[in-house]
Amino acid sequence: MVTGKGGVGKSIVSAALALRARELGLRPLLFELDAPPRTSLLPDGKPAGDDVEELAPGILGINQRSEDAIRDYAISTLPSRTVAELLFENRVSKLFLRASPSVSEMALIGRVAILAEKHGADGPVIVDLHATGHALSLVQAPAGIMQVLRGGVLHERAKRIEEILSDPLRTAFITVALPEELPVSELLELRARLRELGAPLGPVVLNGVIDEPAPRIADAVVAHLENGPLKHAAHDLRALRTWARRAAREGERL
What is the pLDDT of residues 121-134, one digit of tens each? Predict the structure, then answer.
């Protein structure tokens, strides 16, 4: 489960994880959620579609639509497929299903669980989640269902999903941030909350960090420019130095 504040590069990190899994000889499945039309995140691949297919050599993928997940969830839950289809075709019923607490989250994680069990022997299922709050909603959804329903098929399904989500051998929440104050603060709060809920935490990924330590480079260049032929650029270099120090500080917070 890859999560973090919007705009920090979760999708790129998810794609990088898929590429790394392939390098290790695994066959990963990249699970995108309601992704907008775009070119492939994989350098040698194609965009994900509505069904599981090979996006690049050795990498499977799907762009799961929330509405389709809820429909499948209703069909698999209700005793009659016909009743489920009729329910979903009704505009009011469909809006109710979308708005009902935990239903959309259970539908999504149920779909992930099915794919994980079906595909897990070949490699990881890498889920590119929505922004920060979505991860918390997912973790809390099974408990919400079990509180309302004390028994039956839905209760047992929620219990099974909760077991998968809380098992550190099967699930990890990888949190992504940029080296900026707000994304890092939100990430730290998210990890604290996930820890309270018993969710297995994976590593932190600090995106947008260059390999060479920027403060040292910037300081050296600024010092050289102070009396050099490019003195007019010193202001920009000082701005770079300020940014680099801030990036280093946020990295240290993690």
Answer: 689 999 999 878 87
- Residue 6 burial (10 A CB sphere; 0-12, 13-18, 19+): exposed
Alpha carbon separation from 231 to 49, 114, 182, 226 (Å, rounded): 52, 61, 33, 6
pLDDT of 241 strictly over 70: yes
Pairing status of strand 125-128 against strand 201-206: unpaired
Interacting residues of 136 by C-beta distance below 8 A, sequence separation 6+:
190, 193, 194, 197
- Those residues whose C-beta lies under 8 Å from the C-beta of residue 11, and which sit 6 or more positions away, are 32, 35, 41, 128
- Strands in 29-33's sheet, in edge-to-edge order, are 53-56, 59-64, 29-33, 125-128, 2-4, 173-177, 201-206
CATH topology for the 2-208 domain: Rossmann fold (3.40.50)
pLDDT digits 0-9 by tens, 14-63: 999 999 999 999 999 999 988 887 778 888 889 888 889 999 999 999 99
Q: What is the pLDDT of residue 71?
A: 76
As given in the structure block, the two tokens for residue 17 are: 């994880």
Q: Which of 112, 207, 218 is nearest to 165 (CA)?
A: 112
**17/243 Cα distance (integer angstroms):** 28
pTM, 2 dp? 0.79
Q: Please state, in angstroms and rounded to a whole number, the distance separating the CA atoms of residues 119 and 102.
A: 25
Distance of CA 194 to the CA centre of its chain: 14
Domains in the chain: boundaries: 2-208, 212-254
Q: For 149-201, write each residue's pLDDT tens digit.
A: 777 777 888 888 889 889 999 999 999 999 888 989 999 999 999 999 999 99
